[in-house]
């Protein structure tokens, strides 16, 4: 990849930040969009593309969980729940080496690219060796994530997780959590190492992720906020039990507690925030924090439904994440986000404003909210990385569609098969729906999983 290359594209139709435009000429320099002209005549050297959309940010992933996708779908002897799923996850975690993690993350990342995600927020909590001791390089597991991002070409917002306790009130961590644990000083050292590790990766961003209010004390959370210089992500109010435990500990609900005790602003992403009262919903929307919604995982884990409509009415911002990576599919996340609301409200077109296209609204909201949460500009705009996708103009579900009807067709009718090419920093990584390195990455993944599951 020539980092200094200058290239130009002529797009028949493109979704720009202020709407659809025809005959768009886009110039890319050093991987960034340098110029955008509409109603432009193609030049001799332009690469000619058809329908072009900005890439979607995936604001919440635990890449290693791709390896256990489908392994927790058997009913146990007791009632299955998030907490029994977590036991399966801890068991899988016990075996992973940095090499395994790199192989699994690379597969997850090419699948993300093929489905239309061009940046991933990796909420990374698997830090230490199998016996719970730090690796010689304390960032060895993060280095595996960085290598997978580099190999796949996806943009990375790395969110190293601070995890210190098993429950509210600073409970000591359990045996299954031994690979996640830091104190604040060790974590600050890790952040320094990560700054150096990410420096060579183009357009990488470093944030921090206090795992949840179960896993950090208020004092630790305050210190993390003071050392963070990028996005701050936290799992919150995903499960009813977590809400009950938080009330027992503090007298307040998790979102209520965060909004009252921490300087919540646009740097924050509340992942899930499923269980909120109306007052919390409005206060969270007003705080500027992004809601990190992961509809496929939330459905898989039986979390519940985020109050999306009241949150949007209050002016809240959201993005989407693939979280457990049980199924990696950007358009399906958006479709399920809307369908969950329809099933709950027994209505249609819940998340669009009056007269608006639901697909168009979902897509724009997810680009905008995801960009804010991941600390990197997105969208086809000057200064953003040239990250975009092309649709298959011949797909039956897109025939005769124009403007936002193309996004309605993509999200509700065609899905992932209508995504043709995916480009990062002006380079095509995916062609006809397949990543250029798919065969090699899948072969390595196959060897890895065969070894882990033997
Ligand atoms: Zn998560």
**Strand arrangement, largest sheet?**
3-2-1-4-14-15-16-17
Number of domains: 2
Strand content: 15-25%
| CATH first level of the largest domain | Alpha Beta
Question: Roughly what is the average pLDDT, rounded to an integer?
Answer: 95
Q: Pairing-aware structural class of the strands and helices?
A: alpha/beta
The number of E-state strands comes to 17
Helix content: 25-40%
| Largest sheet geometry | 8 strands, mixed
Low-pLDDT residue spans:
none
Radius of gyration, in angstroms, nearest whole number: 21 Å
Describe the protein's architecture and organization.
The chain is an alpha/beta fold. The protein folds into two domains: 7-54 and 380-437, Urease, subunit C, domain 1; 56-374, TIM Barrel (Alpha-Beta Barrel). The chain has 14 helices and 17 strands. It has helices at residues 82-93, 98-115, 140-152, 184-198, 218-227, 240-250, 254-261, 278-287, 295-300, 308-313, 330-345, 358-374, 404-414, 438-453; strands spanning 6-16, 19-29, 32-37, 47-54, 56-61, 117-124, 155-162, 205-206, 209-210, 232-236, 268-272, 290-293, 317-320, 388-391, 419-424, 427-431, 434-435. 50% of the residues are buried. The mean pLDDT is 95. The chain binds zinc ion (ZN). The site of zinc ion has 6 residues, from loops.
Please describe the structure with a list of short key phrases separated by commas or semicolons:
Urease, subunit C, domain 1; globular; TIM Barrel; 454 residues; five-stranded parallel beta sheet; binds zinc ion; alpha/beta
Describe the structure concisely.
37% of the residues lie in helices and 21% in strands. With 454 residues, the chain is of the alpha/beta class.
